[in-house]
Amino acid sequence: MNVLNKKITIIGCERSGMAAARLAKSHGGIPQISEKKSADQIEASAKDWIQNNKVSAEFGGHTREFILESDCVVISPGVLFQSPAVQWAKEAGIAVLGEIEFAFQFCDKPVVAVTGSNGKTTVTTLIHQIIETAGHRCALCGNVGSPFSSHADEFNSLDYAALEVSSFQMESLLTKDEQKKFGLKGFRPHAAVIINISQNHLDRHADMNEYIRAKARILENQTPSDFLVLNNANEILKTLAPSAKSQVRWFDGKAANPNHEAATAVGNILGIPEAICRKVFAEFKGVEHRMELARCVDGVEFYNDSKATTPEAASWALQRFSEPVVLICGGRDKKVDFTLMRDLVRQKVKIAIVIGEAREKIRKAFDGCVPVVECEDLKSAVETAWHQAARGDHVILSPMCASFDMFKDYEHRGKVFKQIVNQLKVRSAECVEKLRTTHHEPRTF
Length: 445
Known about the structure:
The protein is of the alpha/beta class. The chain has 18 helices and 17 strands. The chain has three domains: 87 residues, Rossmann fold; 179 residues, Mur-like, catalytic domain (UDP-N-acetylmuramoyl-L-alanine:D-glutamate ligase); 146 residues, Mur ligase, C-terminal domain (Protein-Tyrosine Phosphatase, Chain A, Alpha-Beta Complex). The termini are far apart.
C-alpha cells in the first residue's frame, strides 16, 4: 500500500489507533487523529507523540469536515462500523479499513489468525510459543501482545505473525468490490482458526446471525493454498466449512484440552513436530488474567480470571474446582443469557458477589440457586468475599461481562483486582477459626 503523502485519518487513539498512526507516518503518510474523548482523557504517551510529530488531531468528537479530508480512514476495534464518522467516509468513496487490515497491507509473511468466543488469547499464545520453540521468528499481536500495526515495520525479520482477532475487527474488512476499487488486498490469513462460537458481544451485534457472519469473514479471502482450522464439536462451525475455499482441518473440541488440539492442528499445518507442541504445553504457565493465582492468604486462594468475559468462559473456570467457590462477577452486559449458568453455579458456588451494570440481571438469573450479594465496586466485592471465605475456599473474579462500565479493559480490571487482593491483611487465628465453624449470611456494602 502506497501511503506516501496520503492523509490517513485514524479514528480512535488508543493502542491500536496510535500504532496505525505510527505505521502511516513511517511509510511517508500524513496521519491525523479523530478521537471522541477529550484531550485530557487520552494517554499522556499518545498526546506527546501527537504533539512531537505535529500531527493534526481533533478531540471531543468527530467532525465531517475532518473526516472528508482523508485519503484513507483507519478505525480502531472499539469504533462502531455503523458510526457516523465511518459512514461519512464510505459515502464519500473513501477507503475505510480496520487497523488489522491496514497493517496487513504491509505484511508479506504468513499470518495465523485466531478467533472465537472463548479461548482466543490462550490458543494464540500457544501457537506463538510453538512457532518460536521450533526455531522460527514470530510476532504475537492483535488483541494479545501488541497491535498488528506495531509489528509491520519488522515483518522482514519475521517468519510468521500469530494474531488474535475479534468480531469487531472482522466486521470492517473490505469487500471484494472495495478491494478492487481501492487497489488494496483483503485480509487473508494463511491459517485461520475459529475455536468456537457462542453468545458474545450481542450488545454490539444485532443478533447471533450478525455475530456469526462477522466471525466467518476471517475465511473470506482465503484460497486453496490456505487452511481453516475448526472445532468439530461446535455445530455452528460445521455450517461454515462448506463455504470455505481453503483446506479445512478439524480439531477435537471434546478433548481434555481443546486449546491444545487447536494449537497442534496449526503446528501440523506449519510442519512443526508434535513433540514440540507437547513440550510447549508441558511448560505453559497460562496467560495473565486467565485463571491466574493472585494470592493465597489464610488458606484462601484468590484467582484473577478477568479475561472471562462470557458465561462460557466463567463456566470453564468453575469446572476446574471441586472445593467451594466465592464468585465475583458482573460488569457491562453483552446481552447474553446468564441463566445458562444456574446449574453449575448451584453446584460450585457458595456465594455470588455481583458488581457493575449487569449486577441486577445476574442477581435475577441466579435467584434461588445461590446467595447473591450486590456491591458497588470491585474493592467492596473483594472485601465482601474476604469476609465470607473460609480456609479451603477459592475466591474467583470471573466476570462473565465486559469491563468498560468500570475499567479501561479486562487487563485494567485484572490488575486492580490483584492490587486489592495484595492489600488484604492477614486475619487473626481466632477470626479464621470462627469462619471455619460458623455460617455467615451474606453482607452488602
